[in-house]
Design a protein that fits this description.
Largest sheet: 2 strands, antiparallel
Number of strands: 2
Helix content: 55-70%
Radius of gyration: 19 Å
Distance between the termini: 50 Å
Number of helices: 4
Structural class: mainly alpha
Strand order of the largest sheet: 1-2
Order of helices and strands: HHHHEE
Low-confidence stretches: 115-130, 133-153
C-alpha cells in the first residue's frame, strides 16, 4: 500500500506540474494553443483529485479519487508526447514535465508498480441491457465505436 508521504509527494508533484504547464502555455506559439487545451484541463484535475482522496472519506471514494488523478496524469503524459511528436515543442523542454508526472504516477501506484494506490481495482465499464424483440436480452458495453447496436443477420 502506498504511504501517506508518497501520496503527499504525488500531490506536490501535481502542483508543480500545473505550474510547468502554465509556463509551457506562455512559451508555445499562439497558433498552437489549441494543442494545450487538453493538457490545461487535465493538469488541474491531478492535485485536486489527490487532495479529495487525502481528505477523510470512505475508502471507496478515496480509491476513486486516486484513480481519477492517475488517469488524468496518464492523459497529460500522452498530451506531452503529442506536443513533442508534432514538433510543437522540443523534447528537452517537455522532459521536466514528464519527470513530474512520473513522480505523480509513482506516488499513486502500489509498491509493485502494477496496481493503483490502495490496491483498488479498475472499475469496469457498466454493462447495459438492451431488450430486443422476442423478450431476449443482450449485454453490450458502450465505448468508442461500440455505442451502436450490432445487428445479427
Amino acid at each position: 500500500m502506498t504511504s501517506e508521504r508518497e501520496i503527499r509527494d504525488a500531490h506536490q508533484a501535481g502542483l508543480e506540474f500545473v505550474a510547468f504547464v502554465h509556463r509551457l502555455a506562455v512559451v508555445l506559439p499562439p497558433p498552437h494553443h489549441h494543442a494545450l487545451e487538453h493538457l490545461l484541463r487535465f493538469c488541474v484535475a491531478i492535485p485536486l483529485n489527490i487532495e479529495d482522496g487525502i481528505a477523510p472519506v470512505p475508502p471507496e471514494e478515496r480509491a476513486a479519487c486516486f484513480e481519477i488523478a492517475r488517469g488524468c496524469a496518464l492523459a497529460c503524459r500522452a498530451s506531452l508526447d503529442l506536443l513533442g511528436s508534432a514538433g510543437l515543442c522540443p523534447w528537452a523542454n517537455l522532459a521536466p514535465g514528464k519527470a513530474l508526472l512520473a513522480r505523480v504516477l509513482s506516488g499513486l501506484a502500489a509498491p509493485d508498480g502494477r496496481a493503483p494506490a490502495g490496491g483498488f481495482p479498475v472499475r469496469p465499464r457498466p454493462v447495459e441491457r438492451d431488450a430486443t424483440a422476442g423478450g431476449m436480452e443482450r449485454e453490450y458495453r458502450r465505448g468508442p465505436g461500440l455505442d451502436r447496436e450490432r445487428r445479427e443477420d
